Records
---
Amino acid sequence: MLRLFFHTQLQLGFAQAAVAALLALAVVLLARRGQIHLEGEILIAMVRGLVQIIAVGSVLVVLLHAPRWTSGLLLAGMIVAAGATSARRARGILDAYRISAWAIAFGAGSVIALMTWLGVIDTAITSLVPVGSMLIANAMNTNGLALNRFRSDVLAHVGEIETALALGAEARNSVTPYVQASFEASLIPAIDSLRSLGIVWIPGLMAGMLLSGVRPVNAAVYQFVVLAMIFAASGLTSLVSTLLIRGRVFSPAEQLLLQPGR
Amino acid sequence: MSTPPNPDSVILRTERLGRTVNGKILIQDANFAVCKGEVLAIVGPSGSGKSSLLRLLNRLDEPSSGTVFVEGIDYRSIEPRVLRCKLGMVTQRPYLFPGTVADNLRFGPAQRGETLPQESIEQLLAQVGLRDYAGRDVANLSGGEAQRVSVARTLANSPLVFLLDEPTAALDEAAKHEVESSIQKIVRDHGLTCVMVTHDAAQAARLAGRALLLESGHIVRAGLVSEVLHA
């Protein structure tokens, strides 16, 4: 349909982006009718996402011919940005950014390093950067979910946590149920993705490989490898961030700092 | 005014204790002492800082100024976990942990690596009038029963001082009576030192010997309950 009105690739691309954005805005408007106000966050996220991906796309053209070590720099930059993005889900928690960045660096970074060393991820910049970015992005999402869940659980259970403290519990132990719950909840998308692979969805990477002529079985196996790597990176990230964050909601005198309205 | 507490029997003493949050004074210059075996009521209107003062006593909140002496020792030099066992607190709402009544009673001692014997569990439950409740799931308790389990759970830590934050405020009349009777019995039988926050003047008169009247974070009156409540 759009092809009838837009004849160049660029025009068509922007038209498709506009239609997709309108759909997203429609959802925001529907949510608004239910007194859920996401408009500010979604608008900023969409504009940011579009500008960023166009900028990165343009830079990638140049980087395709850059030396291999530049992929390390790019991935490190992505980890820093991912840490900042997911740390916003932990408002009011000390060191949320530092913890997020370290957790993603450890979770995604170690999986990228190991799999590159084993030769599962090709060291070519055209392979390492896109696959690495997938792992980092998923680790970021998992980390954001874990922090967000932990924060809301702590805020919803201040009475229980302070009761445990008042009975002599160690601060870190008083939030153990909420650490476990946030770890489990953060991995639901990654687990469901693995579980529904091929039945509910055929990922873009596999579709691209098929279109470029790779044998379906090879494409499918590599897709499974990518999803397993995503699960490993996400799980490690969530494990590290939930372990580190549990101590950050308390003062040195083991007082709960994260309180409603403070 | 009542006679000042005997310095030899003082178990808890605050010195210019204060807390300010975001520029708002919650407690300012609170000076008082609690003697061994006495029941001190902290009374005052809503928002006067009664609960804030109690939270400062077991260091659930950090004082902005001043300190508390427990048996003559500055409480900042006591490990918070140890301090909170010495100054056992019962909150307005009984936050029981999932499991049985016995599981809840074992919680405090377990934090120190101790196992509460079955015999002690039975004794504690008998003190709060809940004999044979050890195996019951806490999900099936009434509000009054849950609060009495909360009292027994705090007692399981053998506290020096019992801090009660409006323990009957969330209960109906019948349950309020049950909990109050349990507290009265424990205090009488064991000579337990008790600091109790209440907005109920009649309850303060029934349970306490002395009282502090708090207004806007300041202690405006202190003395015998009858003097403070009827001045």
---
Amino acid sequence: MPNSRMMDPEIIEQYLKIIYKLTEEGGQAKTSDIAAELNIAPASVTEMLHKLSAKGYVKHEPYRGVVLKPKGRKIASKVTRKHRLLERFLADFIGVKGPTTHQQACKMEHALTDEAEQSLCRMMQHPDKCPDGREIPKCERGITCDKCTSCDVPLSEMREGETAVVSHLISRDNDELCSMLSMGFVPGSEIRIEKRVPMGGPIIISLKGTKVALSRTRGDVLHVIRAG
Amino acid sequence: MEIALAGNPNVGKSMLFSQLTGVGVIASNYPGTTVEYSEAKAKFMGLTLTVVDLPGTYSLAGNSDEERVATRLLTERRSDSVIAVLDATRLERNLVFLFELIEAGYNVVAALNMYDVLRRSKLEVDVPKLERILMMPVIPTVATKGEGVDSLLYTSVQIRRRSGFAVRYDSHIEGMIKELERVVQPEEGGPPVRSVAIRLLMGDRSVIDGASDGAKQLSERFRDEFRRTHGEDIVVHIQRDRFGEAGRIAGEVLSRAAAYRTRKSIAKDITLRPATGIPILVGVLALMFVILVFFGGLLEGALVHIYEHTGGVFFHDLGTQAGNHLASGILEGISLSIEAMLALVIPYILVFYVMLSVLEDTGYLVRVVSLLDGVMHRLGLHGRAVIPMVVGFGCNVPALLSTRTMGSRRERLILATLITIAVPCSAQTAIIIGSVGKFAGAWWALLIYVILMGMLVLLGLALHRAIKFEPTGMCIEIPDMRWPSAKQSAIKTYIRLKEFLTIAFPLLLAGSIIIETLLAYGVLQSLLRPAAPFMISVLGLPSIAAVALVFGVLRKEMALQMLMVLSGTGNLALVLSNHQMFVFALVMAIFMPCIAAFAVMLKEFGLKNTVGVAAASMALAIAMGAFANLLLKLS
């Protein structure tokens, strides 16, 4: 059934990734170029582009080409990032040579989880280019690479009795950020998880001799590095 | 001259205020009691001082209600002197707050409070050194014992100047401040340009709204630029630098590194473990209830006795003197309503407030807040909502006012709706106890409470579904448990009662005068007559009960009295069956409590919301009553 194939997220990702690559330096992606990349007939590409456009991933102008819309760009840059990190890994760490690097990465990129992607990026010490010299898109974590360490976890993952040091805070809400900062949750401050109140209750943290109850929903704002 | 008191919550600020002015101000062991501020006059060295107690806040930059009130008061009043009340045992965090005050250009004097606690843990602060570093006076105080209070007042009257101390931020931020300072228009008598620049950078809405377009755009650009290059919000770095500076200073002036006392481990706190905490909570609530009924009843008897010999006689004489039949009728009615209020409202409210103060003072209430936070989240609220709910069992009016401590307007509205509908106030409790509890038995009364609690949960869930939004998270300090002090509890009860007598009581009295007049002229009866048949058929109540019921919408505390007057007997069992009493009490408990609650809601939430909630409460009450009637008839 062609229809069920169209819904396959892997194929959507594949298309978006190719459009991303073709429009990376500006301009629009032409149907014929996409077809050449995928090695299939331009007619089927056109059909797929209509679907993608209907779903709001791309903007499709007949005879001119397609560009990514923000919704599509988000997915595309993530897949591209995974793809290029994997290429880097295959080429530098394992020594895979030639066009198979690209082909293998194409298959692996869809299976790679976000956590694995993060760890891979850290292990390779945050490369910024793929083996072909193309830019690896930045991750969406909103922190700098020097802050990105393997032991930084959101507060909500900490267990009772553990101690940690605040690494950074992530929040889109300025008020939320301010209120937590003024209580003393600044990068570098030492904390101890005193208790996780059951029934979805708050996490009780001791911070410089004060005990603070923090709603579990706020636990993801605070990222910490386990001590010891 | 005017002195303002500012500081973190729970540092003994209100205690210091009452020491300075000699007036009792509420100070409780849970953070954030003072949302409105207190003000008092004090005589000192021939001067009349106005002392303003600001709500306790952790910062001046935030956007919570307390912070907004504090910032607004500070900027509007520009008090001659600001006393920064610091908790000496938590010097670091308190210094950060002090930095903000200094930065904003106030004439600050610091009170190093709770100095006795610091000394007890064998620590000492090098005060002269701290004064040199901060370039301002620092006075160690013990507010609970009044130590250092005179010296603090003397200093703040004598020394009025700005400190030259300033926190240095990292070079990138300093560069941005410099550039912003150039575009900020200095204001006569206003805050220093540096402070305006910093607050612009922090995205402080109160400053941004008043800034020029140039300054707005520049600060916006800087914030974006900072986020791009550092990957973190600029406020994080500003606060980090402040805490860094505070930590350095604390390290220099403390006799040895502040080894924080190993307080009782909270992990073993039985009030926070559901297996033990929930039984404890139920036990505490049950105990409160028993005390309320027992002591409330005792007080009620005493007050009624006193009134009958004083006020009752006075109004009766007044009525006879008036000679006019109508006037004496009205006077008689007013006298009866005052008696009803004395008998039904004040005893229970008083007892309830004493208990509430004790719960707050010990620090138990904040533990309940933590225990129930997760559950509250499912109702679209957070743990702090427990406090207004508990307050609502006393009187819904202060409960509605205290919803202000909630984060968003939507949370406030949900909470207010739950309180008016499903939390019975002491007048409603008195009706339940006085009718069902007295004549039909305690189990029937308990059943009403169970139904109300069930409604609270269901209504919360439904409202949470209907009004889609993410509840804001809670971030609250948990103080150590301590024994309540009799003096504190007495002061607090006194202030709460005074607040009730000045806000809710006049409204109730005015309402009763109007209603008595309408009754005397027979207006009310004829208005209510058409509703009676409906009540009889739907709720299965005799017509006299129906009149009392409709009457109770306006004046809850009088409904039971009315029922007794209309039936001509104090023994309700003669006129109402157990089932009828149950329906009557249930409907009364769900209805919006009284005109005073309506008025407060109107003030806080506007006409549309208030009418909506009132209509919903009536519809729900009648629906529940009809349903109960149907069920009881079938059984």
